[in-house]
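Recap from last week: sequence in, structure out.
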Amino acid sequence: QVHLVESGGGLVQAGGSLRLSCVASGSISSINAMGWYRQGTGRQRELVAVISSDGITDYADAVKGRFTISRDDAENTVYLQMNSLKPEDTTVYYCNADWGRGVGRTSSWGQGTQVTVSS
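Predicted structure tokens:
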């Protein structure tokens, strides 16, 4: 099992910055990739950014150039640095871990952290 705990959400003015953190515990060595997703009310959860165990990153078009995902393996932590925030970035952000192998491959989710960007 992989357990995830997020932190760092809050209220910020448009143009400001926030950094989200996600600490993983449990079967760390089985993690293939970690990512951040967000889900607005009545909307499907969407990928924001992902980083593989090899350090390869990918971003949603809406956040490219503004958000940066990174990892600190010594702290088992993944970060999402969010700059130039916009009101449309307001929603709940979830950390995800893709872990396991073969038929045992699965995902774990954090509890979510609210990000609110005021105009």
